[in-house]
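pinging the channel bc i need a second pair of eyes. not urgent but kinda urgent?? the chain im working w is below, pasted from the shared doc
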Amino acid sequence: MIAPTALRCVFVGILITALASANDQPWLTHMKEGDVLLDQGRYLEALRSYRTALEEAGRLGSDQSAIAVAHNRTGIAYLVLRDFRRAEAHLRESGSAFEAAGQQRESARVLINVAMALRHQRRFAEAAEANRRAAVILETLFGAEHPEVVPSLISRGELLLQLSQCGKAAELFASARSILGSTVPLGGHVVSLAVFHDLGLARLCLGDHVEARRLIGLVLEQRELALPPDHPDIAESLYAYGKALEKTGQRKEAREYKNRATAILSRHYTDNLIGLTVAANAPK
């Protein structure tokens, strides 16, 4: 299963542009702090900042767009912390607010995150419907070949990959790759890296182990350049690369990569799960 890491989530895009006039509001400061922490893989700290922002936005009577953004970020934080039910609840609050405000692009992007939360709860039919709705909105707004539709292609492909429909998943990832371009940009544009990583997993699933290793290796190289060494996205790539090495007969090297991935995730999620347990009874 593809991990629900922060760089795989879809962020609503109105925070700075549409809400710039709110710079003096304390909730926006907490929101920006959360974004920095999320980028660093410090998910529990990000969750605390987003929940504080959400509480502040409600207390100050902020408009619905601000509250919708705060719910979206809080949902993403719960998503990457693997608390999928709370993630779904916050994301649905966000999507409903955007839909009521007529902000179709933002509601579609939130739907993609909802699909991820549903997929990880094994509610596959609901996830497929959320993906379908997001795709219809984005393709209507931008056209089928626009970069805005790429997150929808990725999400649909990841669901198919989880259902072992490897060929269909590979087709969607290849379409996303075609839209974005055929090379991984220097510095590791996160959406392009997600496409290459997922395409590598699809090739692995299809038995094309050498090409899978090449694609996943490219992503690992770029992520190690761009991210802190203990970031969960690096662990995702390390583990996938280990699987590819295993399939090509390099079992000793495969164990080394998988062990590195496990060490990162064990430290990361042990700390976060302890924090989530403590926070479980706090106001949502």
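so Residues 276 and 282 are 10 Å apart (CA to CA). and The longest helix spans residues 251-279. — does that match what u expected or am i reading it wrong
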